[in-house]
Amino acid sequence: MHMSAAIGNPDSVQSIPVAGTRYRHLLDSARKLDPIRTAIVHPCTAVSLASAMEAMETGLIVPMLIGPVAKIRKAAAEAGRELKHVQIVDVPHSHAAAERAVALGREAKVDALMKGSLHTDELMAAVVDKDGGLRTERRMSHVFAIDVPHYAKPLFITDAAVNIAPDLDTKRDIIQNAIDLLKALGIDSPKVAILSAIETVSSKIPSTIDAAALCKMAERQQIQGGILDGPLAFDNAISSEAARTKGIISPVSGHVDILVVPDLEAGNMLVKQLIYLAGALAAGVVLGARIPIIVTSRSDSDVARLTSCALAKLLVRRQRINQELVKGL
After folding, report:
1. What tens digit of pLDDT does each residue of 292-308 get?
2. How crowded is residue 205: how many other Cβ atoms within 10 Å of its Cβ?
3. How far apart are alpha carbons 107 and 286 in whole angstroms?
4. What are 135-157's pLDDT values in tens digits?
5. CATH class of the domain whose range is 137-288
6. How far apart are CA 247 and CA 230, in angstroms?
7. What stretches of the chain adopt beta strand conformation (E)?
8. What is the pLDDT of residues 175-216, one digit of tens each?
9. Which one of 113, 133, 261, 286 has the lowest number of neighbouring Cβ atoms within 10 Å?
10. Short-list 252, 256, 257, CA closest to 186
């Protein structure tokens, strides 16, 4: 079942559901698949350890706990969790845990990484290492899957976590990563709004020029699989009525799936505003590496953490299908 059909039209909202409702489609789709082998990097707090165990119990992952074994067992005791039949890889500290997890990913011994109680920068430093990391030809980027009660389908916001001030080529990869993710979720031809402060091209606002260039790149097949429009201000990206008021004719306005922010600062503010002012939930995953990287926050809800695992699981399924297609050529 395609998510776009299951979720409905954002311009026809009749009532405001509880946050998390739209995540059910992702979780239901992911539960139908075999769990993915996931390296849990330094799960040395009760919250991070419990999150991994819940994802296992839900059938999303088969966890491999990587970190100091004494700290892991202490975290399990604090969380009231048994670690029977769960593999633990004992390493001395968080830096070693990140390196070991990345090595396992490079050797195809795990299908995904999941951040535990270490800092995101420490994990990503090992991931992007030029010699031993998980780089591909694609720039890595982060996508938030946002469940906003006032919007009738999930919004995917990128990049609000990895690339601070992306240039045009990086934005191209950011968009392609997001499109590929949505296709893995069953959304054909996702609609992509490239955000700026205004909806016209201005030499005084560089993000409007980037947006126009990215749309032309899509026309020339340098970005594939999505329907792009931009620059668009947030209001006329989200609301077709706002777009009509300004005389904007766009296949994206009011039906957007992916919001591409001009930089990390804008994206970070947008995501947190939606969470704290609109009651949204935010799941997320890092794309563009050899395997997906699940990055959660201590403040994330349980359903958001599980949805982050579901995103990675569905992406792994898509990657396997693509690999089989390549082998068959």
Report:
1. 999 988 778 889 899 99
2. 16
3. 19
4. 999 999 999 999 998 888 899 99
5. alpha beta
6. 14
7. 36-41, 61-67, 87-90, 112-115, 141-147, 155-158, 191-195, 227-232, 258-260, 281-287, 293-294
8. 999 999 999 999 999 999 999 999 999 999 999 999 999 999
9. 133
10. 257
